[in-house]
Amino acid sequence: MKTIDENYFKEAITSNAVEDVLEEGETILWRSKPQKNSYILAHFCRMMPIAIVWLIFDGFFISMMVASGAIREIWWFIIPFFALHLAPVWIWIGGTIKAAAEVKNIEYVFTGKRIIIRTGLIGIDYKYIYYDKIEGVNVKVGIIDRLCKVGDIYLTAAGSAAVLYDQQAPYQLSTKLQKIANDIKTDISFPNAYRPENNPGYNTNYGPKN
């Protein structure tokens, strides 16, 4: 039985880089981060219409109270009331600030074994999706994505899901990812030792009969 060194679990991890979580012999094939401007702009625009309408609505009532002088008499009630009532505006501002702060920590990595997704604002979180567990790869390109020439890749896997936000050439990237997942699944289902050199099932094409 192979023994494990007592310091196996005591190795210091200080950089919080993807390299810290790679398995032995695991190599990085591709790595990327979301396009910063697109990522922040998408979060900025997400609640903007609601926040602006809410701000105009509350601003109208506040200006009316100021003009009538009522705010001087019940300021102790009006100020905290509107501070709470403007919650959608604070959520919108906070969401934009959060996106600007967290985007630097986001990284997507394809290795020879799996997809590693690095995220986090205060602490760093990792999510792993193994290629053989991938069930679907979809691409979505919104208005902001089109303007910034990027797209979002949605991954569905057994028991989990993930999104690779704001990636350049999303269609080509999704095609390559699907090929990797299909190749890995094929290797697992049909190991090389069980593959004859000649097999009528290889390279089968489906199409109309001539």
Kindly describe this structure.
With 210 residues, the protein is of the alpha+beta class. 42% of the residues lie in helices and 21% in strands. The protein is built from seven helices and seven strands, in the order E-H-H-H-H-H-E-E-E-E-H-E-E-H. The chain has helices at residues 36-46, 48-68, 70-73, 75-85, 87-102, 143-148, 170-189, and strands at residues 28-32, 107-111, 114-119, 125-130, 134-140, 151-157, 160-167. The strands form two sheets. Strands 1-2-3-4 form a four-stranded antiparallel beta sheet, with no helix packed on it. A three-stranded antiparallel beta sheet has the order 5-6-7. Helix 1 (36-46) packs antiparallel against helix 5 (87-102) and helix 2 packs across helix 5. The N and C termini lie far apart (61 Å).
Reconstruct the topology from this structure.
Layout: E1 28-32, H1 36-46, H2 48-68, H3 70-73, H4 75-85, H5 87-102, E2 107-111, E3 114-119, E4 125-130, E5 134-140, H6 143-148, E6 151-157, E7 160-167, H7 170-189
Antiparallel strand pairs: 1-2, 2-3, 3-4, 5-6, 6-7
Mean pLDDT: 85
What is the ordering of alpha helices and beta strands? EHHHHHEEEEHEEH
Indicate the proportion of strand residues. Answer: 15-25%
Structure classification: alpha+beta
Rg, Cα atoms, Å: 26 Å
State the end-to-end distance.
Answer: 61 Å
Helix content: 40-55%
